[in-house]
Amino acid sequence: MISRLKLMDFRCYGSFSWQIPQQGAIILGDNARGKTSLLEAVCFLLRLQSPRTARTGPLASHGKQSFGIRGELPGQIRRILWAPDAPDLRVNGEPRKGQRSYLADSYPVVWMGNDDLSLVQAGADARRKYMDFLGSQWHPGYRLALFSYRRALKTRN
């Protein structure tokens, strides 16, 4: 469980800090106030993937090119300073070289959103994308194999 979350220039948040109660929290608010963005930030902090977009550019606040996320978890403090040219990924203050190293000791994430109906209603692409997201969390080599597969497929096509 995350005990503290800090955001900098992430989506609609210029600066945000939240000490999450040990018993958990319920996020309430009007539409378009950033509730989903908080959950998206947690997902990105732990998996370096957004369930809402495949590109990282839209994650930065309007007019910004970079963003930061910091989270405190049991035995870990994870921090991301994401810039288009070179993201700075750290766990417990120690720099991690590349996404694979950063994800090696991360936690799994379950994301449930409105688009989950597409798993049943849409074509196989939606289901494949979902399974790729799960596979990359449970099997360390899956993400690397997936990138290699996509690169080979793109080259072939």
Task: Outline the structure in words.
The protein is α+β, with helices and mostly antiparallel strands. It folds into two domains: 4-111, Rossmann fold (3-Layer(aba) Sandwich), CATH 3.40.50; 114-157, no CATH class. It contains five helices and six strands; from the N terminus they run E-E-H-E-E-E-E-H-H-H-H. It has helices at 35-47, 98-103, 118-121, 124-138, 140-156, and strands at 4-10, 13-19, 67-73, 76-82, 88-91, 94-96. A six-stranded antiparallel beta sheet has the order 2-1-3-4-5-6. A hairpin with a 2-residue loop joins strand 3 (67-73) and strand 4 (76-82). Helix 4 (124-138) crosses helix 5 (140-156). The model has no long low-confidence stretch (mean pLDDT 90).
The CATH superfamily of the largest domain bears the name P-loop containing nucleotide triphosphate hydrolases
Approximate strand percentage = 15-25%
Helix % is: 25-40%
Give the overall pLDDT as a whole number: 90
Most strands sheet: 6 strands, antiparallel
What would you call the shape? globular
| E-strand count | 6
Chain-wise SSE layout:
Layout: E1 4-10, E2 13-19, H1 35-47, E3 67-73, E4 76-82, E5 88-91, E6 94-96, H2 98-103, H3 118-121, H4 124-138, H5 140-156
Tag the structure with descriptive keywords:
single chain; 157 residues; alpha+beta; Rossmann fold; 2 domains; six-stranded antiparallel β-sheet; 5 helices; globular
